[in-house]
């Protein structure tokens, strides 16, 4: 799939912001006074920037409000509702909590809605049977795990963060492993796509057009094998190993800041790979093969 | 409304005969032409007269080669457009309700004034049947020429999709696949019509007819007298002279 920058920034930034908001809601990060204001401002800014970025890939952003209508069937519509509810509840919670009136149940509700938003985003991808790499239970687990880890990291829960980083590194490797085998395991091949598989080996003889088209640009994107290994290593080092090491050193704000930056850069690389590695079955009609 | 209807009264669709299709792309051109001038926004093109033209098409012809374990490979021309699936995944993912499946005839359509151009429906379709219009920013797809098939201003023989009307080989058939007595249903029954990617569980309405086995070379061919006995005259002398060298 085409790694659109708007979608990469959306899912990374909103994941960071919503993770931090969930921790603020649960009272696991400082919510009072000036410190509270800084934390809330950071969390809302990240979430807001992410959500705005998501509208950049729309053909008609001025009609975005219509996306609230189909929550019965569409995860994208559900995401819109849960995101607005999360921002509204957490906004009210923040306004009350900063002067010192922290309503715990309101915060819990907000935290659930924040993680619900991340989960809905993940389900937009995980529901797609057409992209076997995404159509896995690891997809929502990864999105939620990254958000919770970001929340722990940004709210300064050092020991939680280290444990979460280790767990997430393992989960990420499992997701890659399962993902690499997913297309072959899905049973969809050029043989079933053309219905000609029973007659022999099928290969693309001529594409429909000499140039590319919307489908090839949007869905038939492949990362070179070499870059895949390099980028995955980069994700493991930047998102997990380096932040964990820095946090295990005697605590300083500078080291923590470097850990945050490293984790975010690693997350951006992970999201780029999430899209770029994903094989859409329509690629089979364009001569793309499994693995 | 993006909830799919439980059942549709009719299932209008296409039956495409891979045995007959000659890969001329006439249906592609007819489709592009009709859908640029009629229902909805014109089918847009980017850089149409420039160095890298690219545009939205609702029907594209791929050509595949099938190599059996034994014998000669076969080229199969493969037209592909929306299959108007009963369980259309493109419809349920739509956040705005722009995508819908009609109860009366099962046609899957996009209401272009509601489409926000998010592209999720194109991701959900395994067949690549939906393409974003590069000019309008809305999703385009086969309408089964909904503006032809019910159009009483047209002569009766023209009330079929443009691709079917234009096919010079008669490889495309249009009709109601819910009616077991319709021509298309009988054709599907007689020829063993198949679904594309049945494992994706989209229950496509359109069916494909597989190519028949090609004529085999006569088993007696090796024993027949050879027609060509080698070059004669000057060329024959040259051939023999060169062989001796």
Task: Write up what this structure looks like.
Chain A: It comes from Palleronia salina. Chain A: InterPro entries: DmsC. Chain A: The chain crosses the membrane at residues 7-28, 34-59, 80-100, 106-126, 229-248. Chain A: Keywords: Membrane, Transmembrane, Transmembrane helix. The complex is a heterodimer of chains A (291) and B (245). Chain A has one domain (5-286): Formate dehydrogenase/DMSO reductase fold (Up-down Bundle). Chain A is built from 10 helices and 1 strand, in the order αααααααβααα. Chain A has helices at residues 5-25, 33-55, 75-97, 104-126, 138-154, 158-186, 190-194, 214-219, 225-248, 253-276; one strand spanning 201-206. In chain A, helix 1 (5-25) crosses helix 10 and helix 4 (104-126) crosses helix 5 (138-154). Chain A is globular, with a radius of gyration of 21 Å. The model of chain A has no long low-confidence stretch (mean pLDDT 93). Chain B has 245 residues and is α+β, with helices and mostly antiparallel strands. Chain B has a single domain (12-209), classed as Alpha-Beta Plaits (2-Layer Sandwich). Chain B has helices at 26-37, 89-92, 120-124, 146-149, 162-166, 183-191, 233-244, and strands at residues 12-17, 45-46, 54-55, 59-67, 74-81, 99-101, 108-110, 131-132, 139-140, 172-176, 207-209. In chain B, the strands form 5 sheets. A 3-stranded mixed beta sheet of chain B has the order 10-1-11. Chain B has a two-stranded antiparallel sheet with strand order 2-3. A two-stranded antiparallel ribbon of chain B has the order 4-5. The longest helix of chain B is centred in the first third of the chain and has 12 residues, at 26-37. The radius of gyration of chain B is 24 Å and the shape is elongated. Chain B starts with 11 loop residues before the first strand and ends with a helix. The mean pLDDT of chain B is 92. At the A-B interface, helix 3, helix 7, strand 1 and helix 8 of A face strand 3, strand 4, strand 5, helix 2 and helix 3 of B. Strand 1 of chain A pairs antiparallel with strand 4 (59-67) of chain B.
